[in-house]
Amino acid sequence: MVNKYLYFSRPNELNDPFDCFIPKHYVYNSEQELKNFVETANNNKNTPKKISVEYMKERLERKEYEKLDYLFTNHLHVLSLSESWNLETMWGRYADNYKGICIGYKTLINDNQNYLEIDSPIANILYSDWLQVINDKQYFLLRKIHYNNDGKHKFNIFNLNIDCIQYNIFHKKEAWADELEYRVFLHDSENNLIDDKDGLFNKISYPDTTLSEILFGYKMPEYEMKIIYDFIINLYKNASDINFFIVQPDFEKYELTRYKYIPPKEFYIFNHSEYKENT
To answer: What is the SS3 assignment for 56-91?
Structure first.
């Protein structure tokens, strides 16, 4: 929030080990198909080293498929969001059991689709139709996740059946259905995302107006709420339009509820050890 960016995770950073896992089918139908694949891989500047047809045949014969994965999975990036703030499992799983926060972003609804405004120059990204320009502003199209992945939609790297990639990225196992997820998927073939020295932090900035809500878990210390509140109020031009809430259980309704956060004007700290030393 302080640096105003959206974090795009790599698949190996996700909690679900099957998330974005793409079952692969390493079978080519002709010698020409294999040659075309090798040529495409060698034309990609991010391929670690040049490969040959013989290299590919040797790897395939040995079934060393995992060594080929970098050719198309090394640059996947995923932004994961949820459609709801009051999901108990999400607060337990991702917000330190109500000690953390939930961030609400404003979306644009256009033609029954949800769009999230961004503020980064994006280029050379596969599936550019997910990046839309509406009224001279850049938006990501948010796609809903379906929870019925059976692990049988295999991607053949030699004929590039892209539909299988999309299926496995936007279909998860039923066990995660409680997350009500929407996501953006990018394949950054030219390394346009901002990476740190380890290539882990993939960030795309957003304008101030994209941030709409901050929800504090009820177990978060109040002084931490105040620190976050002050940061947002001082850093965001639209601070007066951002809503702050505290989320807590309502035991009568047997569900989570939220109420408006009102920041304290002052804090008082009592230190027992200092008191004893000075008396």
So the answer is: HHHHHHHCCHHHHCHHHHCCEEEEEEECCCCCHHHH
